[in-house]
């Protein structure tokens, strides 16, 4: 699994002579293992209705999400609302996740209460979906692959904007954005992988420079919605130019 402000999958780690199986982060998403409820039953829950409405607004109006949806479509991975998004109840420490086994984004309806939060979670998870589409990401065995996608998601989703960091009472000047990206990537790995903090830090540090500088499909770090709108226009114009070659 992957997360919205944590994230992704896993492995098995030996402790002493015994091998402890990793649950791939699914413990955080208990509804993944339950029989789907009927539409009528789900419609009675306020959380589910609110989640669906906020999701629709994000997909229709948020420039981060719109760019990623377009990029996924052009990469051969068209995203459909009913198929690729699922509003579910989750553990209290996560906001969303990317389930690579089903290519589905899980939105934690019990933890996402504001539209701005929904925007960030959807964008974060769509970046994981984009990485899953364009690259051979080994979510389940290669912690460096997971670390790379987590770095990109934290860097490009708006997780580490100045306003979000101020809201977390975290302040810094030189290099603070990079520090935030690194810290949130490590936090995401630890949320879903049964690895030590040292292992997570080592994986992030080893791939940080390359993955931090991989800005696809935005072409820039979008520090605001205005940046994201410009990136979206540039992306559309880039495709028009390519089409005319």
TrEMBL record:
<dbReference type="InterPro" id="IPR019165">
    <property type="entry name" value="Peptidase_M76_ATP23"/>
</dbReference>
<keyword id="KW-0479">Metal-binding</keyword>
<dbReference type="GO" id="GO:0033615">
    <property type="term" value="P:mitochondrial proton-transporting ATP synthase complex assembly"/>
</dbReference>
<feature type="region of interest" description="Disordered">
    <location>
        <begin position="1"/>
        <end position="23"/>
    </location>
</feature>
<dbReference type="Pfam" id="PF09768">
    <property type="entry name" value="Peptidase_M76"/>
</dbReference>
<protein>
    <recommendedName>
        <fullName>Mitochondrial inner membrane protease ATP23</fullName>
        <ecNumber>3.4.24.-</ecNumber>
    </recommendedName>
</protein>
<keyword id="KW-0378">Hydrolase</keyword>
<dbReference type="GO" id="GO:0004222">
    <property type="term" value="F:metalloendopeptidase activity"/>
</dbReference>
<keyword id="KW-0645">Protease</keyword>
<keyword id="KW-0482">Metalloprotease</keyword>
<dbReference type="GO" id="GO:0034982">
    <property type="term" value="P:mitochondrial protein processing"/>
</dbReference>
<comment type="similarity">
    <text>Belongs to the peptidase M76 family.</text>
</comment>
<dbReference type="GO" id="GO:0005739">
    <property type="term" value="C:mitochondrion"/>
</dbReference>
<dbReference type="GO" id="GO:0046872">
    <property type="term" value="F:metal ion binding"/>
</dbReference>
């Amino acid at each position: 699994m992957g997360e919205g402000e944590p994230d992704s999958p896993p492995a098995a780690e030996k402790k002493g002579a015994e091998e402890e199986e990793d649950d791939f982060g699914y413990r955080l998403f208990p509804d993944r293992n339950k029989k789907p409820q009927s539409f009528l039953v789900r419609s009675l829950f306020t959380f589910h209705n609110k989640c669906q409405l906020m999701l629709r607004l994000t997909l229709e109006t948020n420039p981060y999400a719109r760019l990623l949806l377009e990029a996924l479509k052009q990469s051969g991975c068209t995203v459909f609302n009913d198929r690729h998004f699922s509003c579910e109840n989750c553990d209290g420490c996560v906001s969303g996740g990317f389930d690579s086994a089903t290519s589905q984004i899980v939105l934690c309806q019990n933890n996402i209460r504001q539209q701005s939060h929904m925007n960030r979670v959807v964008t974060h998870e769509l970046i994981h979906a984009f990485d899953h589409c364009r690259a051979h990401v080994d979510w389940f065995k290669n912690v460096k692959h997971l670390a790379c996608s987590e770095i990109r998601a934290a860097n490009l989703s708006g997780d580490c904007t100045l306003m979000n960091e101020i809201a977390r009472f975290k302040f810094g000047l030189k290099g603070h954005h990079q520090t935030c990206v690194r810290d949130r990537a490590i936090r995401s790995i630890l949320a879903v992988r049964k690895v030590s903090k040292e292992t997570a830090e080592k994986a992030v540090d080893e791939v940080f420079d390359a993955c931090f500088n991989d800005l696809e499909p935005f072409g820039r770090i979008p520090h605001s919605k205005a940046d994201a709108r410009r990136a979206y226009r540039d992306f559309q114009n880039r495709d028009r130019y390519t089409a005319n070659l």
